[in-house]
Design goal:
Radius of gyration: 22 Å
Number of helices: 3
Strand content: 25-35%
Largest sheet: 10 strands, antiparallel
Order of helices and strands: HHEEEEEEEEEEEEH
CATH superfamily of the largest domain: Glucose Permease (Domain IIA)
Structural class: alpha+beta
Bound molecules: zinc ion
CATH architecture of the largest domain: Distorted Sandwich
Number of domains: 2
Length: 224
C-alpha cells in the first residue's frame, strides 16, 4: 500500500469535510471563489448581474463592499478548514512510534500497530468529522472507541471513560473519552490505531495532515 495513495485519500476526506463546512457558511462547493453581491444595482455592468455572474476575475470592477465580502468569504473558508481537523489531545507528545519495537511486556521484537501518546486523564478529541463505528472493552485495548472517517478508522485505546455511543455522529474536536490505563498497558497513555480500508497505517499521517492543514490556514489568513 503506497503512502501517496493514503495521503490522497486523506486529502479527499478532508476536502469532503470542507465542502460540508461550506454549507454552513457562505458559499457552495464548486462555487468557492465567487463573490456575493449585496446590492447588484450598484455595479456598472449593464449586462444582467447575478451573484453567479461575478467571479474573482472581475473583482476589481465591482464595488468595495463586494471585495470586502470576498475577503470575508475567504477568511471564513480558512477558519472552517482550520476547524475541520483537530489534534487527538490538547498536548501531543509521542511516547512510542508506529513500527517494530521491543514489546514492553515480553521484551521481544514486536510490531506496534499504532502510536502511544503521553496523557494524564486527558480529553480525547475526534480528529475529523465521522461517526462512532464501535465502542468496546477487551483485555488488550481496554476501553476503546473506534471512529470511522470515510475509508479510514481511528481507534483510541486504554481509555478510562467513554462519552460516545455506537452510530453517533462526531465533529472534529468532539470529546470521545478520557485517557486511562485500561487493558494491556504499562502506564497511562493514549494508544491510537489508524486503518485504511482495514489495513493499519501510521497514525503520524493523520497528525501530519492536521499540522499541515492548520499551518496552511494560518499562513493564508495572515495574508488576507
Ligand atoms: Zn501502543
Amino acid at each position: 500500500m503506497s503512502k501517496t495513495r493514503i495521503l490522497i485519500a486523506l486529502l479527499l476526506l478532508l476536502s469532503g469535510n470542507h465542502a460540508k463546512a461550506q454549507f454552513n457558511t457562505v458559499s457552495r462547493p464548486g462555487n468557492r471563489y465567487k463573490v456575493t453581491v449585496e446590492n447588484p444595482t450598484r455595479t456598472t455592468n449593464k449586462a444582467e448581474v447575478t451573484p453567479e455572474s461575478i467571479t474573482s476575475e472581475n473583482e476589481k470592477s465591482v464595488p468595495d463592499k463586494v471585495a470586502l465580502s470576498s475577503t470575508d468569504t475567504k477568511k471564513k473558508e480558512q477558519v472552517a478548514r482550520y476547524l475541520s481537523v483537530c489534534y487527538p489531545l490538547s498536548s501531543v507528545k509521542i511516547n512510542s512510534p508506529y513500527g517494530y519495537r521491543k514489546d514492553p511486556f515480553t521484551g521481544k521484537r514486536k510490531f506496534h500497530n499504532g502510536i502511544d501518546l503521553h496523557a494524564r486523564s486527558a480529553k480525547v478529541f475526534a480528529m475529523m468529522q465521522g461517526r462512532v463505528l464501535k465502542v468496546g472493552e477487551d483485555k488488550v485495548s481496554g476501553k476503546y472507541v473506534t471512529l470511522q472517517h470515510g475509508s479510514f478508522t481511528v481507534s483510541y485505546c486504554h481509555l478510562s471513560q467513554i462519552f460516545v455511543s455506537q452510530g453517533q455522529a462526531v465533529l472534529p474536536g468532539d470529546v470521545v473519552g478520557i485517557t486511562g490505563n485500561t487493558g494491556r498497558s504499562t502506564g497511562e497513555h493514549l494508544h491510537i490505531t489508524c486503518k485504511f480500508n482495514g489495513n493499519s497505517i501510521d497514525p503520524m499521517l493523520f497528525l501530519k495532515l492536521i499540522e499541515d492543514t492548520q499551518q496552511s490556514c494560518v499562513a493564508a489568513l495572515t495574508v488576507l
